[in-house]
Amino acid sequence: MTKLLLRALAGETLPTPPIWMMRQAGRYLPEYRATRAQAGDFLSLCYNPDLAAEVTLQPIRRFGFDAAILFADILLVPQALGADLWFVTGEGPRLSTIGDAAGVAALRPADRVHDTLAAVYETLRILARELPRDTALIGFAGAPWTVATYMIAGRGTPDQAPAHAFKTADRPAFAALIDRITEATIHYLSAQIEAGAEVVKLFDSWAGSLKGQDFDDFAVAPARRIIAALKQRHPGVPVIAFPREAGDRYVGFAATTGADCVAIDNSVDAAWVAAHVQPDGCVQGNLDPRHMVDGGPGLVAEAQRITRALRGGPHVFNLGHGITPDADPDNVARMIDAVRSA
Ligand code: CP3
Questions:
Q1: Residues lining ligand 1, judged by CB closer than 6 Å?
Q2: Could you tell me the CATH number of the domain that includes residue 267?
Q3: Does Lyase appear among the keywords (predicted)?
Q4: Pairing state between β 261-264 and 239-243
Q5: What is the pLDDT of residue 2?
Q6: For a Cys staple, 18 with which of 4, 27, 58, 291, CB 3.0–4.6 Å?
C-alpha cells in the first residue's frame, strides 16, 4: 500500500501525515470559478462528470494533495429521494420541505437514488483513471441527521430548530426519515465505491446539536448502520466519520460506529484529541479554516502545533471545516510546507 492516506487510515503512524482539505475544490481557486461559470450553476457542475472531475483535479494539480475528494454535494441525496433542490447565489441551498409522516412516506424508495446520481458515479470513474498514482480518491455523503435538517427546514439553519421540532412532535416519523436517508446513503456510498472511491467520508456537520439519547439514536446509530453495511459489502474500504462539534462525544465515536478515522472540528484542542480520541484510531482535521485567510506566522505555528501534537499516532492533516471563499491559495501552499517541515 503506497498511498499515504490509506496507510494512515489503516492505523499506521507516519513521520509526515497525508494532507488534504475539506472544500479543497472551491471558490477560493480562480480555476474553480472559471469552470463553474462554464457549467452555468453549481448543480449543473455537480451533474457534469467531465467538469466535476476537472474541478476535483484542480487542487491536486496546484498543491499535490495526498487525496482528492469527489466534487458533488451532500444535498444530491435529498434530490434523489424526490425533494426539489436549488441554490441561491450568495445565500445557499433551498429545498422543498418535509413536515410530517405523509411527507416522509411520499419520498422515493432508497434503492431508486441511482436514477438521479448516475452522473456522480461517472465522475468517480473518470477520476479513478486520471488521478496521479499516489493520490487517494475519497467519496462522501451527508450523515442522515445533517441531511434531514436540510430536508425538514428547506435550508441551512443555525440551530436546526425545525428538525428538532419535528423530532419532538413525531419521533416515529422523524426516525422513519432518518431510516430512509440511512438506506439511501448505503446504496449511494456502495455505488461510489464500485465506481472507484477508495475511502468514503460521512459529513455530520450538525451533529453538535444532538445531545444525550438523541446523539446515540441519530448520530451514532445511523453511522454504525451505514458503516456496517459498507464493511460487509466492501471489506477493507476505510470510512472517515465527521460528527462536527461533537465535543466530548468524539471520545469513543470510532469504536461505537466502526469508523476507521474520526474527523475533528477546530473547537477542541489537538493535545486533548491526542489524549482522548487518537488512542481509538486515526484522527483528521482541527486546523481553524480562518488561518487560510489570515496566513502569516499564526498559520505556520498552528499547523505545526497540530502536526506535532498528533505525531504519536495515525493522523491525517486537514482543516476543522471547509476552506472559505475568501482564503488565499498561497496560504494553502504555506500550510503544506509547514506540515511537511514540522
Ligand atoms: O470538499 C470538497 O471539496 C468536496 C465537495 C463538497 C461540497 N460540499 C461542494 C460545495 C462537499 C464534501 C460538500 C459537503 C457539504 N455540502 C456539507 C457538509 C460539510 C460542511 O461544509 O459542513 C454541507 C452542509 C453541504 C451543503 C451545502 N452546499 C451548503 C450549506 C452550501 C452553501 C454554503 C457554501 O459554502 O456556499 C453548499 C454549496 C457548495 N458545496 C459549494 C461547494 C464548492 C459552493 C457552491 C458554489 O460554487 O457556489
A1: 22-27, 36, 42, 69, 71-75, 92-93, 140, 156, 203, 205, 322
A2: 3.20.20.210
A3: yes
A4: parallel
A5: 87
A6: 4
Look at the chain and report how many structural domains it folds into: 1
Using the mean position of ligand 1's atoms as its centre, give its distance from the Cα of residue 268 in Å: 23
Integer angstrom CA distances of residue 106 from 164, 173, 177: 21, 12, 11
What is the tens place of the pLDDT at every residue in 219-259? 999 999 999 999 999 999 999 999 999 999 999 999 999 99
pLDDT given for residue 32 in this prediction: 98
Task: DSSP for 87-143, please give it.
Answer: EETTTEEEE----SHHHHHTSPPGGGTHHHHHHHHHHHHHHHHHS-TT-EEEEEEE-
Cα–Cα distance, 254 to 139 (Å, whole number):
19
Q: pLDDT tens digits for 109-142?
A: 999 999 999 999 999 999 999 999 999 999 999 9
Average confidence (pLDDT) over 146-165: 98
The three-state secondary structure class of 191 is helix
Residue 62 annotated in active site? no
Mean predicted lDDT score pLDDT of the chain? 98
pLDDT at 90 over 90: no
Q: How far is the centre of ligand 1, averaged over its atoms, from the C-alpha of 46 (Å)?
A: 11
In this prediction, residue 327 carries a pLDDT of: 98
Compute the C-alpha angle 18/302/342, nearest 5°.
50
Q: d(Cα 157, Cα 172) in Å, to the nearest integer?
A: 23
Ligand 1 atom, smallest distance to 27 CA:
47
Q: Which domain holds residue 254?
A: 4-340
Ligand 1 centroid to 318 CA: how many Å?
16
Known catalytic residue: 23?
yes
In this prediction the ipTM stands at 0.94
Query: Amino acid letter at 178?
Result: I
CA pair distance 206, 159, nearest whole angstrom: 8
Q: Is pLDDT above 80 for 186?
A: yes
Residue whose cell numbers read 424508495: 109
- Chain-centroid distance, C-alpha 74: 8
| Residue 325 alpha carbon, nearest atom of ligand 1 | 35
The DSSP secondary-structure symbol of 336 reads: H
